[in-house]
């Protein structure tokens, strides 16, 4: 495990400001403290900190105020697959089959969650519960405070890759809401998604229809709708209460890797090198974002701009309304696994081990696209997870 960062690994300031529309430029800062690829990047709810989880078996906390590393989280015995950051605590999961909870002020490990028997690849914290998905074919619910398993969800025939949660109060009038203690939705490489009653652990619905692995999932709780993306190149919308398949989004020519749901629009990133925008309520495709040189591995909508990360080692900014390419961010050497935006800074984390900070001032700051005639069941509340596709190492242009 790494100790004190080497001088060469400290944060370096870029020599140039980011270029103009469609052009590339240097990062404001390159944070190269990790000694392995960064698998995930999480932003705290208050926007003060970032958390990165790495192939080197560590996680690092970063200040968004100055981009400095403020804590090194060491203890996992294998690579960190995913991480989640709250204002007061950080959570990491690993190929060592454990999950760890950390104090964000001291970097001290507060709790180790043991029970999974294979790689833990996804975690989600909500309603004072920790949910996890694993290659051992199970999902689990844990007490955040005690570190003990409160429920196991068994039924998938292969790896559980992605998770989403709906609290009881997000399902007003649903017959299963109160007694279920909320609903957990899981997606698996067995080609199904499942809806579980958290309180009892029973499977409420099995969502069947995909012919390939379910890689990503977003949940719109007011309309009781889950959107799933798969290696079968489709996105499917489901009613999680009835299990009914509502619609199928077909046009991608490769696996759907990541999803984002914003104002009744679904954005999907695919191995076919495009992002597509769809009307969530009808499945109509309204826009295609091209210009990527490899799979689209990450998506983030922010203030009228759609940011993407790709296996071609570049991030891009598009006008979400018109689809026009506004800027290309060059500098990484491998696939970009995750992106976040805070204020006027874009953060990109890559399998090259670097966290890069980019100035996004000058990009149009448009309001979200107008909401089309929508169901009368309330405003979207969004929960999202995605699984990236590995890409061959590339050298930046």
Automatic annotation (TrEMBL):
CDD domains tied to this protein: WD40 (cd00200)
Keywords of the record: Repeat, WD repeat
SMART domains found in the cross-reference section: WD40
InterPro entries: WD40/YVTN_repeat-like_dom_sf (IPR015943), WD40_PAC1 (IPR020472), WD40_repeat_CS (IPR019775), WD40_repeat_dom_sf (IPR036322), WD40_rpt (IPR001680), WDR86-like (IPR044715)
Region described as Disordered: 1-25
Signal peptide residue numbers: none
Keyword flag Repeat: yes
WD repeat start and end residues: 31-72, 73-112, 113-152, 181-198, 207-248, 249-288, 329-361
Name of the protein this chain belongs to: WD repeat domain 86
């Amino acid at each position: 495990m790494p100790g004190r960062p080497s001088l060469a690994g400290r944060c370096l300031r870029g020599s140039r400001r980011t270029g103009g529309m469609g052009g590339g430029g240097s990062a404001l800062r390159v944070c190269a403290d990790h000694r392995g690829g960064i698998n995930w990047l999480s932003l705290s709810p208050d926007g003060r900190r970032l958390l990165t989880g790495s192939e080197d078996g560590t996680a690092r906390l970063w200040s968004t105020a100055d981009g400095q590393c403020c804590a090194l989280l060491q203890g996992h015995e294998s690579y960190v697959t995913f991480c989640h950051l709250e204002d007061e605590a950080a959570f990491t999961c690993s190929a060592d089959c454990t999950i760890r909870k950390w104090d964000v002020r001291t970097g001290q490990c507060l709790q180790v969650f043991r029970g999974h028997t294979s790689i833990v690849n996804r975690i989600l914290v909500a309603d004072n519960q920790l949910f996890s998905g694993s290659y051992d074919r199970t999902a689990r619910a844990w007490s955040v405070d005690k570190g003990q398993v409160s429920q196991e969800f068994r039924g998938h025939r292969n790896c559980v890759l992605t998770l989403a949660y709906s609290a009881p109060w997000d399902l007003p009038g649903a017959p299963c809401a109160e007694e279920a203690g909320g609903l957990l939705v899981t997606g698996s490489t067995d080609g199904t998604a499942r809806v579980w009653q958290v309180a009892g652990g029973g499977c409420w619905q099995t969502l069947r229809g995909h012919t390939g692995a379910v890689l990503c999932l977003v949940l719109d709780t007011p309309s009781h709708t889950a959107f799933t993306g798969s290696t079968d190149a489709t996105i499917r919308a489901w009613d999680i209460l009835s299990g009914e398949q509502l619609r199928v989004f077909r046009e991608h020519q490769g696996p759907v890797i990541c999803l984002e749901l914003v104002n009744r629009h679904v954005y999907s990133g695919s191995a076919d090198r495009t992002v597509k925008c769809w009307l969530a309520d009808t499945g109509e495709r309204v826009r295609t974002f091209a210009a990527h040189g490899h799979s689209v591995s990450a998506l983030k909508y922010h203030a009228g701009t759609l940011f993407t990360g790709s296996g071609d080692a570049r991030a891009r900014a598009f006008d979400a309304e018109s689809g026009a390419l506004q800027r290309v961010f060059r500098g990484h050497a491998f696939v970009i696994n995750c992106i976040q935006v805070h204020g006027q800074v874009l953060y990109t984390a890559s399998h090259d081990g670097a966290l890069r900070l980019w100035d996004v001032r000058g990009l149009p700051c448009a309001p979200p696209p107008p909401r089309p005639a929508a169901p009368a069941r309330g405003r979207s509340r969004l929960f999202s997870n995605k699984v990236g596709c590995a890409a061959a190492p590339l050298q930046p242009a």
